[in-house]
Amino acid sequence: QVQLVESGGGSVQPGGSLRLSCAASGSRFSINRMGWYRRAPGKQRELVASITEDGSTVYADFLKGRFTISRDNAKNTVYLQMNSLKPEDTAVYYCNVIVRVTDYWGQGTQVTVSS
Question: How far is Cα 30 from Cα 76, in angstroms, rounded to an integer?
Fold first, then answer.
């Protein structure tokens, strides 16, 4: 089974930055798609950004250019650079990967943006 380990979450003031990392292990095959989702308190989970193995990316509209997703295929790791963070970005961020037709999810990492 593929296991995902997220890191980089924490507490930051508005306008600050964080860099999330998600390392996948145990995959016998290349990871087709890697991405980040988030769930804010009292809200449904939503896509933040995703990236395929050939580099195609998808971003949520609410990012307004503040976040950047990238991946290192050799390390099976995906990153999310989060800049100009706002209180509305407070959520648990989950890593998601697709290997062939199977979805895998991380445990989530908390991001808190407050004054």
Answer: 8
Q: How many CB atoms lie within 10 A of CB 114?
A: 10
Residues 6+ apart with CB under 8 A from 2: 24, 25, 26, 27, 97, 99, 102, 104
Q: Each residue of 91-111: pLDDT tens digit?
A: 999 999 999 899 999 999 999
Q: 21, 17, 31: which is closest to 95 by C-alpha?
A: 21
The CA R_g of the chain, rounded to the nearest whole Å, is 13
End-to-end alpha carbon distance in the chain: 40
**Amino acid, res. 10:** G
Cα(22)–Cα(29) distance, integer angstroms: 17
For residues 5 and 30, what is the distance between their CA atoms, to the nearest angstrom? 17
Interval 48-90: pLDDT, tens = 999 998 999 999 998 879 999 999 988 999 999 999 999 999 9
